[in-house]
């Protein structure tokens, strides 16, 4: 149901909300991770596992996030304070810190992608050593640092204009560009001689992979990082949604759109690689990691294949739109949390930018630091899903479903399966993926697994995660006491309060 609203009072339209949620979900992982994990984990078998996890894990948590954000009308700290209890404010604070960490590394990736877009436009891939090119771009490069500052400045500027006047307006322009560029690459790729081999690897169902734990672990990881259930993005954007509007169909459409882009991008990349390199070399490229695929193998491919110049521009344009629109969401999450402390909306945005800048400079300068922080923040991210599941369980899953998900404004009713999923299945799957990542880390380097300053180690996870946990718990009451205006009544969705209007 479409609700007419005054300009600047939350999202101006359902399509604007949907495009913003899609922009928040679609990121680098759709282009550089999904194609790899599909190819390396049984093709269609991985897609089946992904679909199961999509409905059993991601969607219930995303529905819950949306309803919590809309019912509390607060950012992460205030939402957990009002929805669960004052003692749980630290949960929202914990997730805010994780998003700051993610934003600091993600803005660095934005800088890399923008530089590669410029390389594509200037035909710099032709004859270049792409391994050296990436090393020069990602390691101790002053130009990349300048791009980091400029992108962060631009993102803060857009978010400072408000939801409808800044983010929503930008999404209506950027998401169509992303979609068009991705489709152009896919159409060209499937017409290449030998492209059917790539399609075979992508969609053929090798049922043996359904019996492998790693297939399910990779599918869980992809949904956790791509759609971001428990991340805080949906919760924060839901603060600006109209009280009398749909949650259920909008959220499912967001998730399906994210998956569609990932599949189209995978089709483009797999067909191009397998048609040009052959199955053995293409499979090896897929195993080279996200950076190896995106910044080394594909630039080599674009430099040599027919029409590669245009495809390179389209690919890095689509990727830049994806990472930039996701970064808008990161800033929105953090600035909304800072605003809870009684700081004006515009100041909160720029404070978020300053904190990200300070934390992000080391990651932008050093790949080692980048890798360590990416591992820590990406792993701790899943705790947000546990926090949401705990909140719904404490409130009462059945009561939550009946009051906030099965409203007259939702497009389809949610059955009792949601209650079982959000209180049992989703928490178990979250613990499974967390345990799987820790096991992989220890297995990769048993001797250095507990190195507190190592990259990708359990030790660095314990050190940083423990410090964040300690600080957020210590400051729980102080932050909770500064959060004013309780809107949550446990029964209905309140209207968007004036403090969240664009002009504030």
Q: How would you describe this structure to a colleague?
A:
- This protein is mostly helical and 504 residues long.
- Helices cover 74% and strands 0% of the residues.
- Helix 8 crosses helix 16 (308-339).
Counting DSSP H or I runs of 4 or more residues, the number of helices is 23
* Overall number of strands: 0
What overall form do the CA principal axes indicate?
globular
> What's the SSE pattern?
HHHHHHHHHHHHHHHHHHHHHHH
What's the overall average pLDDT, rounded?
92
Low-confidence stretches: none
Keywords, separated by commas or semicolons:
504 residues; mainly alpha; 23 helices
Helix-strand layout with pairing:
Layout: H1 14-25, H2 28-32, H3 34-40, H4 44-72, H5 76-83, H6 89-121, H7 130-138, H8 142-160, H9 163-190, H10 195-203, H11 213-226, H12 233-238, H13 248-277, H14 279-286, H15 290-304, H16 308-339, H17 345-365, H18 367-380, H19 383-395, H20 397-405, H21 417-444, H22 458-474, H23 476-482
Helix pairs in contact: 1-9, 1-13, 1-16, 3-13, 4-5, 4-11, 4-13, 4-21, 5-6, 6-8, 6-16, 6-17, 6-18, 6-22, 7-15, 8-9, 8-16, 8-17, 9-13, 9-16, 10-13, 11-21, 13-14, 15-16, 16-17, 17-18, 18-22, 19-21
């Amino acid at each position: 149901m479409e609700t007419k609203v005054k300009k600047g009072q939350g999202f101006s339209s359902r399509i604007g909300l949907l495009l913003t949620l899609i922009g928040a979900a679609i990121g680098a992982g759709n282009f550089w991770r999904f194609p790899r994990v599909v190819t390396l984990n049984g093709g269609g078998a991985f897609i089946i596992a992904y679909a199961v996890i999509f409905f059993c894990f991601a969607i219930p948590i995303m529905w819950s996030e949306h309803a919590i954000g809309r019912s509390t009308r607060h950012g992460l700290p205030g939402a957990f304070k009002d929805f669960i209890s004052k003692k749980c404010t630290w949960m929202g604070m914990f997730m805010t810190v994780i998003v700051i960490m993610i934003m600091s590394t993600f803005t660095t990736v934005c800088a890399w992608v923008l530089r590669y877009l410029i390389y594509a436009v200037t035909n710099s891939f032709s004859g270049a050593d792409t391994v050296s090119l990436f090393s020069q771009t990602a390691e101790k490069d002053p130009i990349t640092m300048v791009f980091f500052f400029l992108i962060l400045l631009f993102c803060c500027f857009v978010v400072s204009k408000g939801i409808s006047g800044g983010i929503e307006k930008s999404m209506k322009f950027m998401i169509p560009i992303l979609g068009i560029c991705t489709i152009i690459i896919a159409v060209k790729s499937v017409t290449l001689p030998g492209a059917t081999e790539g399609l075979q690897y992508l969609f053929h169902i090798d049922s043996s992979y359904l019996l492998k734990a790693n297939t399910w672990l990779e599918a869980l990881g992809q949904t956790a990082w791509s759609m971001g259930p428990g991340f805080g993005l949906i919760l924060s954007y839901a603060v600006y949604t109209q009280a009398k509007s749909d949650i259920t169909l909008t959220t499912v459409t967001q998730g399906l759109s994210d998956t569609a882009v990932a599949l189209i991008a995978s089709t483009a990349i797999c067909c191009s690689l397998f048609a040009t390199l052959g199955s053995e070399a293409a499979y090896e490229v897929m195993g080279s990691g996200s950076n190896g695929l995106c910044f080394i193998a594909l630039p080599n491919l674009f430099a040599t294949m027919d029409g590669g110049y245009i495809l390179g521009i389209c690919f890095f344009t689509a990727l830049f739109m994806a990472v930039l629109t996701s970064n808008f969401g990161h800033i929105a999450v953090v600035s909304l949390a800072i605003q809870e402390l009684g700081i004006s909306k515009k100041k909160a945005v720029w404070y978020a930018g300053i904190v990200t800048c300070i934390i992000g400079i080391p990651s932008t300068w050093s790949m080692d630091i980048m890798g360590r922080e990416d591992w820590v923040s990406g792993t701790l991210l899943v705790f947000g899903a546990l926090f949401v599941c705990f909140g719904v369980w404490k409130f009462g899953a059945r009561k939550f479903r009946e009051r906030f998900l099965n409203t007259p404004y939702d497009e389809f009713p949610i059955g009792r399966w949601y209650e079982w999923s959000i209180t049992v299945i989703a928490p178990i799957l979250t613990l499974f993926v967390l345990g799987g990542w820790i096991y992989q880390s220890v297995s990769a380097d048993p001797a250095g697994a507990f190195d507190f300053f190592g990259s990708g180690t359990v030790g660095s996870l314990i050190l940083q995660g423990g410090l964040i946990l300690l600080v957020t718990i210590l400051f729980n009451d102080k932050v909770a006491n500064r959060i004013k205006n309780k809107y949550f009544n446990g029964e209905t969705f309140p209207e968007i309060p004036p403090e969240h209007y664009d002009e504030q």
